[in-house]
Amino acid sequence: MLKADYRMNINLPQSDVWNYLEDWSNWAKQVPGYQTHRNVSATDSIWELHGKAGTITKDLKLYVKIIEITSPSTVQFRVRDSENRCLGSGCFELSGLSSRSSTLTCLLELELKGLTGKMSAPLIGSLLPTLLEKFVQRMVKPLTEADSVALPL
What we know:
alpha+beta, seven-stranded antiparallel sheet, about 50% strand
């Protein structure tokens, strides 16, 4: 099981961040390698990604399911690829630090199955923390830019 987490303080109230976070269409485009996504239902969507690690490239179709939304603090989700070789779960946890700032934590766990999964696990495991950090920073960037505070990527 591969695991990564990333925590970020944001100079915005929890309610502002939550209004953005609870609609995955706001942030799906910030996933590294994003190509497109479509909503299948209120809880299910299909995301198409183009992954690249060194000279290895792969197109992925991910099925994302929102398991639970607890306003204004938690979004739990599951993810799997079209061949059920990559299974995962994760969550976003949002907490208010003050009336003007909040903390966003993203947790992600992935299980890679099959021979290819076992072979690629060390590489993906080493890249996962950096990819998650980049994703969270990109995800909140539109919020902070609207507030005239830019985040370096």
